[in-house]
Model the fold of this input.
Amino acid sequence: MCALLWADNVSFRYAAGAPLVVDGVTVRLTDGALAGILGPNGSGKTTLLRLLSGTRRPTSGRVLLGERPLDQLSRREAARQIAVVPQETELAFEYRAIEIVLMGRHPHLGVFTVEGPDDIRIAQEALASTGTSHLAERMFHELSGGEKQRIVIAAALAQSADLLLLDEPTASLDLGYQLEISSLLLRLNQEQGVTMAISTHDLNLAASICRELILVRDGSVLAAGPTADVLTPENVMGLYDVEADVRINSETGHVTVVPVRLAAPKRIREGGRISRSSSGSGR
Amino acid sequence: MSIRRRIVTVVAAFAALAIAVMIWAPTVGSTPISLARAFDRSIPWDDNVDAQIFFVARLPRVLAGGLVGATLAAAGVVLQALLRNPLATPFTLGVSAGASLGAMLAVTMRLEMTVLGITSIPLASFAGSLVATAIVYALASSQRRGLSTNVLLLAGVTLNAFFSALILFVQYLADFAEALRAIRWMMGGLDVASYFPIIAALPFVLISFVAFAMMTRTLNLLSVGTEAAAARGVEIVMAQRLAFMSASLATGAAVSLGGPIGFIGIIVPHLVRLIVGSDHRIVLPASALFGAAFLVLCDLAARTLMSPIEIPVGVVTALIGGPFFLWLLVKRS
Done:
């Protein structure tokens, strides 16, 4: 199948002389895909998503949107096809939830155009499909973490893009909200056909909803393919330096990953004591 | 109500307020005049003292207040969104310090040039504001990837301190009369002698306001987050440059006309947001109109409260604005 979005051997560094944050990564997103970009903190997931959305240009390699190189599109053109849910939303001023969602219409509006009935209908549909219609008139900063995340996803949906890129959509949420968001994403993919790439460090979120996974460590792809093939104890070890028990639930078919113990390679042993500093970041 | 209706209705209400204040203000003063008589075209101009006082003596000053107030308030809105910081003012990035240094140098070096009827102090202060803008811009865009708002803030704050030190130094070397004249300029004053200084500042303000009008929705997106704005189709680097340059140009023109009048650029946008919310398509024009009305009223107080003594208008805006602003903050929290 033809790739909707194709990052072909892309590399990126934030400044000349700085290390490569993304190093020769290839990602192919086909129409209707639900892909997870999985890796430890600092592995380059966020940067990879920025390359995929076109808000950063790769230092080398190229990103194709359909047939066209992404960097030949204006930001406006790109935003009509690719929507992004950022990791965090910090408002400088107070807005109502509906105002945030309507901002998703920006790439479809002219400089002096005001949102018309169609834009408002699309925003309301986005609210409805994220189950947040009742929050429309509430102030965004008064909402709970899960409600905020759903509003931000609604804003991205209001962009009417074919592709949705989500950066750690459940990272700051507790268990209940994590489930709420992951089932919402699965539903949007299955019922509305939204193609998605989700970056996450959460193995079980990735395992429960993503059909394919790209494992990223230190800016490079460790493994990629269908979820069940990629999520092996060896790969989890390679990704996180953690020994893990990977099980397939016989009823649901879901893969679950249970961390067993921290692997102890030579570099984190210091005179018999285990240093915590080098284990957490996964670098 | 549709979004367009809401924008038009709210902005029209603020426009009505600004126009009403600017028509009423010239009638107040040491010699009360009648509006009806001032606008009565059947009385010959030479016999119509009311019209002469209205149009020649007082209206230029009111219009100057309106232009400066509108500009400082609007520039405040733009900079607060650009820096994603509600405490930013039009003077945060060093524009007014540059302008003050320019004015100070014009006074102490006894520059007596005029260009197209504009005297040396406004010319020098406008030049100073442009120099400050150029320095901050060069510092903040030295990194390849567009403007860093953090560097912009730090550069602005540092430049403010540096220019203030230079101003004190020049002032220390100046003689008493010169120093006093420069200090009075820095307190702000709208006592223009004719329409000419207003017409001279107008093109710069108008160009900036066209830029402001084009970026109102972009300012909303920047308020929500720079990355998010980029993903929604905003060309971030271009938007930031346009916002910074237009706000600085407008502020420079306003300061050269009325001096560095404080508080307008922060108190007016905050008050307006309390009333209308944060949508910049409303906040920006409403702040400009409310800023015009607010500064004209402050200037009215400045010239009438202790008549015949005039209080510097910058002192009035701070004396009225400061406590009022604190009261609002306490009341809201």
The radius of gyration of chain A is 20 Å. Chain A touches chain B through 42 residues (CB under 8 Å). The longest strand of chain A covers residues 3-12.
